[in-house]
Amino acid sequence: MAQTLQQIFFDLFGADAMIAFSPAYALQQLVNGLTLGMIYGLIAVGYTMVYGIIGMINFAHGDIFMVGAFLSLIALTGLSALGITSVPLALAITLLFAAGIAALYGWTVERIAYRPLRGSFRLAPLISAIGMSIVLQNFVQVSQGARVKPMAPMIDGNLPLFADGLFTAQISAMQVAIMLTTLLVLGVFTWLVTRTPLGRAMRACEQDLKMAGLLGIDTDATISLTFVIGAALAAVAGLMFLLYYGVIDFYIGFVAGVKAFTAAVLGGIGSLPGAVLGGLAIGLIETFWSAYFTVEYKDVAAFSILVVVLIFMPSGLLGHADVEKV
Amino acid sequence: MPAPLMPASLLEVRDLTMRFGGLTAVSSLSFAVRAGEITAVIGPNGAGKTTVFNCITGFYRPTAGGIALSPPGGGTLALERMPGHRIARRARVARTFQNIRLFAGMTVLENLLVAQHNTLMPSVASGLLAVFGLSGHAHAERAAIARARFWLDAVDLAARADDPAGALPYGAQRRLEIARAMCTSPVLLCLDEPAAGLNPRESEELSTLLRRIRDGAGGEPGCSILLIEHDMGVVMRISDHIVVLDHGRKISDGSPAEVRADPAVIAAYLGDGDDDDSPATAA
Amino acid sequence: MPARAGAALRDAFLSALVALGLFGVLIGLKTESGPGSLVLVARPWAVVIAVGLVFAGRLALLAWRGWRPAGTPSPRRLVAVGGRIGRVLAPLLLAFALSLPFYAGRYWMDLGILVLTYVMLGWGLNIVVGLAGLLDLGYVAFYAVGAYSYALLAQTFGLGFWTCLPLAGLLAACWGVMLGFPVLRLRGDYLAIVTLAFGEIIRIVLLNWVSLTNGPNGISGIPRPTLFGLTFSMGGGPGTVSHFFGVEPDISQRVIFLYYVILGLALLTNWVSLRLRRLPLGRAWEALREDEIACRALGINVTTTKLTAFAIGACFGGFAGAFFATRQAFISPESFTFMESAMVLAIVVLGGLGSQLGVALAALIMIGGSELFRDFAEYRMLVFGGALVAMMILRPRGLVSGRTPSVSLGTAKQISPDLIAQGRG
Predict the structure, then answer these.
(1) Roughly how many angstroms between the first and final C-alpha of chain B, as a whole number?
(2) Quick one: pLDDT at residue C4?
(3) Domain locations in chain C?
(4) What's the sign of the alpha-carbon dihedral A137, A138, A140, A144?
(5) C253 falls in which pLDDT band (50, 70, 90)?
(6) Given this model, what pLDDT does residue C84 score?
(7) Which of 1.20.59, 2.40.50, 1.10.3470, 1.10.10 would CATH assign to domain C84-419?
């Protein structure tokens, strides 16, 4: 039966379309989707942390990611000019460097644009954040130029995973590197949030900022720290993005930012595992949609699924169902 | 034990159960509110009083059980199946909130006009036509303002009609919330702790106001009242009928005198509620 | 005094240090395409200048704070002043807008048209955000729907601007309802992200549905509006305005006409919003912004009420879109990016939520202001973003905050912004 269906499909759409029946092809999309999803997840964590603590959409977060990508590009170019050829060493230095400076950006943005508006009414920080996003975008455009920046791939090599008659699925060394680094960074981050006093302070502020302050937690410092950690994670995502796609420009922050925020909302905003899960979901949706339907409408697919999920699960996948207090 | 069916009962709550996850806030509760009376629901904190209110006014959908309203005009409405705004509009059950919910940035008068929204704007189309002065809005608005003035006088807020509601003192905000609920022309007024935070003089005035609302005055028809209250002075003074809840169950039901004499009520209020499990106290 | 100066110097030095961290890499090392791969170009002097500017700027800010006269006016007073100024300023602005074509040149007319378009968009969005308290980050979608509706109707069926204008508004309103129906149950920032997503979806569809919209190349040759059937053709033949009035055909006639069209449309938006505010529908919107739960308890159908706000706001966005299309005679998806939504929202928030005068002032300041920086080409948006942040910090409640009651028994008093809720939807 399946054979005949495939036959009909073949007659209708030709040999190229037969790829839709290849399990290897689907496996390849899974691998690609997970890689992309991890990048989204890393950015989404920053959105969800800030939202959890001070309840604002940090619109500039996507641009911190973009700044992180540029910092990584500069660092990698500089390191290769200095003659450091060891790839793991170069990556490790770049990661720490980009995360460090991006963290400074995160701290500064909060200090300048959000802290004076804390406790002010809801839309002022949002507009301020949009302003900051414009500033960062144009700052990078002015300082680094508007042109697309290409970078030669650093890690070569592919590992074949599975082949059927139609397609061979493979995972590239780059993808392995991205996944391992992301998991490592997320592991450290999880440890930080769940096992350290610092993480406890963050979670306390998330529950009730005022009360945490009354109990002697330095809320200003905790909020700053949230921005710092979020920015560092975004910078890691920026590095991954640079490695994976090999080209960046000053505009990547907006698109990735919107996707990552969508991921955070999809996962249930305020929930850290939800952000990663949402990121993976958006990455998979996009990749599968591009592979089986049209590349042009991949964002439409991601956004539409967001709408559908929110209609049926108004608090996202892992968010707290907030019971209406009357 | 379901309450006996009274001929003049306005609201019948039958076997009402409300669960939140594993927690049972109200369990098979039955009671009746008779027309033209003030019925009080009392009980210790966490007894499930506000949950009952939220079920009646459509903010929660009960897990099981029925809530039937038989308005004076005839017919019976099943409130447990209606969304909140339809309960207020069709069944004409109005309510106030434990933590006052006024439109703080709007004036006292505006608050009372918003309450008459459905009279002023029967449909979206008429609301839009009013932009071009086409739906006889001016006349309706005059009537609405007259009604608002009536209730402003009734709650002694006429002098503050043009002040923002959020700027009123606490007691005045409580009175305004009652006036606003009354502007919807309800048949049943549900008050969630109307005397909370009031001083003795204000409580006394509140009692007078509630009696007046029950009996009707100045061309207003009487309106039955269901209230939750902790202030026993107020409850005993004005209630015609009292329902006592504890841990989501009804433990007593009757006139103020009956309830006051009920040992189960005394036990609940003194914190000795374990008489079922402990034979020593039962004996 | 020396102690304070010392502290200020220390503070400025720390700021400069942070600036060095921020700018050292991104300004100091520029990536440029070299032979084969990227190379880094060092620009130490640019870093020195940037860090120096931060140092001086911080010092100046601290000095200004230190010497600022104590006792700033209380918010309550500002509100009262705001109300009084409004009564004088609004008619003055209107008179200025009406008389502008009599003495302004082509450049100022074009700028005037641009500002008025944003004033109209701001007033339209003000209904949704300012009155009903619903955060809409995708308002540009309705602008796009209006523009493409007119362009396509005009090109496919040969309909004129005045026929299409109501249709464009109606179609945008329909889209508003279609979007609103499923999502208006969502609260707060969920609504924000879904509206943002909707805006992007519309843009992506316009970009990729080439057979209908001509994709990224856009639609050109969109007909200009006519004055009672008379065209503004440069040819000057029968049926043109110049022929009818017996004057020389001149491009400025059309510009002035367009100016008055958008002024009329903007004033219509204003009139409808002001009128609605005094009607039950508008009052229900404001009540919704103040407390949705109380609204439900009073029997107000929250979903319908939100939908009307969404639809009416969208309708005006559609009108503005149709105007945009007829004015430009060319539209492409590039004109309908998130930046536009953000700009309009910024105008509404900066103006002061719910304040008609504030929105007009904010549009004037922001569009006019960013026009002043046109000569600084690439720094223009940088300054614009910075100004947005600065203005929010200086006036988080907007230029004209406070609220005028919609009805009163005695004399209406301005309501202090501290009491007004911002809505959670």
Answers:
(1) 24
(2) 76
(3) 2-64, 84-419
(4) positive
(5) confident
(6) 65
(7) 1.10.3470
**Chain C window 276-315: which residues touch A at a Cβ cutoff of 8 Å?**
293
Two structure tokens written together for B59: 């903010």
DSSP code of residue A260 = H
Nearest CA in chain A to B100: A326
- Whether the CB-CB separation of C266 and C123 falls below 8 Å is answered with yes
Measured between beta carbons, the chain C residues lying within 8 angstroms of B59 are 293, 296-297
Q: H-helix or E-strand containing C345?
A: helix C338-351
CA dihedral C168, C170, C172, C178 (to 10 degrees): -150
Query: Which chain A residues are closer than 8 Å to B20 by Cβ?
Result: 323
Handedness of CA A225, A226, A229, A232 (dihedral sign): negative
Chains that touch A (3 or more CB pairs under 8 A): B, C
The chains found to touch C (3+ Cβ pairs under 8 angstroms) are A, B
The pair of three-digit structure tokens given for residue C103, joined into one six-digit string? 């003495």
Same structural domain for residues B75 and B133? no
Residue numbers of C between 117 and 136 with CB closer than 8 Å to A: 129, 135
Half-sphere exposure of C95 (CA within 13 A, CB side): 5
User: Domain containing B270 — which CATH number?
Assistant: 3.40.50.300
Strand A149-150 to strand A247-248: parallel, antiparallel, or no bridges (unpaired)?
antiparallel
User: Is the CB of residue C209 less than 8 Å from the CB of residue C151?
Assistant: no
Residues B228, B169, single domain; the answer is no
Exposure string for B103-131, b = 16+ CB within 10 A, e = fewer: bbbbbbbbbbbbbbbbbbbeeeebbbbbb
CB contact set of C61 (below 8 Å; sequence gap of 6+) = none
Boundary residue ending a domain (B169, B184, B199) = B184
ipTM: 0.88
- 3-state DSSP assignment of residue B243: strand
Confidence of residue C69 (pLDDT cuts 50, 70, 90): low
Contact between chains at A261 and C207 (C-beta distance less than 8 A): no
> What single-letter amino acid sits at C197?
A
CA–CA separation, B121 and C280 (whole Å) = 6
Tens of pLDDT, residue by residue, chain A (326 residues): 556 767 777 777 776 677 777 888 888 899 999 999 999 999 999 999 898 888 888 989 999 999 999 999 999 999 988 888 888 899 999 999 999 999 999 999 999 999 998 877 778 888 899 999 999 999 999 999 888 888 888 877 888 878 787 788 888 888 998 899 889 988 888 888 888 888 888 888 888 888 888 888 888 999 999 999 999 999 999 999 999 998 999 989 988 988 898 899 888 888 888 999 999 999 999 999 988 888 888 888 888 888 888 878 877 888 776 556 66
Q: Tell me, yes or no, whether B193 and B87 share the same domain.
A: yes
> Domain check: are B83 and B106 in the same one?
no
Q: What letter represents residue B33's amino acid?
A: V
Q: How many domains does chain B have?
A: 2
**Domain ranges, residue B8:** 1-92+186-283
B4, B54: one domain: yes
Tell me which long-range contacts A152-159 makes (C-beta under 8 A, separation of at least 24). A152/A246, A152/C37, A153/A243, A153/A246, A154/A76, A154/A87, A154/A90, A154/A91, A154/A243, A155/A87, A155/A243
Same domain, B264 and B138: no
Terminal Cα distance for chain A, rounded = 58
What six digits make up the tokens of B73? Answer: 């005009």
Structure tokens at B190: 């549900």
Regions of chain B with pLDDT less than 70? 1-7, 270-283
Q: What is the mean pLDDT of residues C172-181?
A: 90
Where do the structural domains in chain A lie, given as residue ranges? 40-143+171-248
> Are B64 and B157 members of one domain?
no
Token couple for C304: 């319908």
